[in-house]
Design brief:
hydrolase activity; Rossmann fold; AB_hydrolase_fold; 7-stranded mixed sheet; AB_hydrolase_1; Alpha/beta hydrolase
Length: about 270
């Protein structure tokens, strides 16, 4: 067991099961976003939680600009944690860009993963008509980066509302804001650039690990067309439409999230 890696990524292991399940956060968040979901799996699984380097309680001194310039660096974090814990055939549950990071990790080391659960995944956020609708125009994403640089707190407020897309849940919006604001603005902007300007559509066909795609309703960040595209191009995948609205069902609708993941695992694992 590599204690240095476990400390670097602030790895927490809970549960008493023989099989393992790893929960990965999305952009701007840490492992605490899974607090309403992960405990439900502790009875039957060894539950692994972690932070990407540069987020949460990870070791900020380990942050390397070149390594984390692309999502491949974050995928290496996932592989490092798996190897540090001697994991095999792990269920990987990733939210948003975390799902794509897990996908990239599975392509490099498919032996480490048994299934992928992709919550609101998007392989490309930019529109590429007429074949692909990612939800954003290039100028919108450049505007996002500019706002992060000039008014990070203001950006956090606006982006939290956009991500959640539920005006009746101010508690969750404030929770997201606080997580965004707890991240170093420079690192957050670099992560945003790596996430929102990447295009991993060609990687979908390379995945050999079976997967479940959870598609939220009224998701501005990863619209329904994106979920359908991922399902069409991702081998061995299943697509489940959620009743949950917005982009963070693990925070806003944890019961449905737990139910759908649990139902899938009962049948396929």
């Amino acid at each position: 067991m590599n204690e240095a890696i476990l400390s670097r990524n602030h790895v927490k292991v809970k549960g008493s099961g023989t099989s393992s399940i790893m929960f990965a956060p999305g952009f701007g968040c840490d492992q605490s976003v899974w607090s309403a979901v992960a405990p439900a799996f502790e009875e039957d699984h060894q539950v692994i939680l972690f932070d990407y380097v540069g987020s949460g309680h990870s070791d900020l001194h380990a942050y390397d600009l070149n390594r984390y310039r692309t999502l491949d660096g974050y995928a290496q974090d996932v592989l490092d944690v798996c190897e540090a814990l001697d994991l095999e055939k792990t269920v990987f549950v990733g939210h948003s860009v975390g799902a794509v990071i897990g996908m990239l990790a599975s392509i490099r080391r498919p032996d480490l993963f048994s299934h992928l659960v992709m919550v609101g995944p998007s392989p490309c956020y930019l529109n590429d008509p007429p074949e692909y609708y990612g939800g954003f125009e290039e100028e919108q994403l450049f505007g996002l980066l500019e706002m992060m640089e000039k008014n990070y707190i203001g950006w956090a407020t606006v982006f939290a509302g956009t991500v959640l897309n539920q005006s009746d849940r101010p508690d969750i919006k404030e929770e997201l804001e606080s997580r965004f604001c707890s991240t170093d603005p420079v690192i957050a902007r670099r992560f945003a650039k790596a996430a929102f300007f990447s295009d991993h559509r060609e990687n979908l066909s390379k995945v050999t690990v079976p997967s479940l795609i959870l598609q939220c309703s009224d998701d501005i960040i990863a619209p329904a067309a994106v979920g359908e595209y991922v399902h069409k191009h991702l081998p061995y995948s299943r697509l489940k439409q959620m009743e949950a609205r917005g982009h963070c069902p693990h925070m806003s609708h944890p019961e449905e999230t737990i139910q759908l993941i649990g139902d899938y695992l009962k049948v396929h694992v």
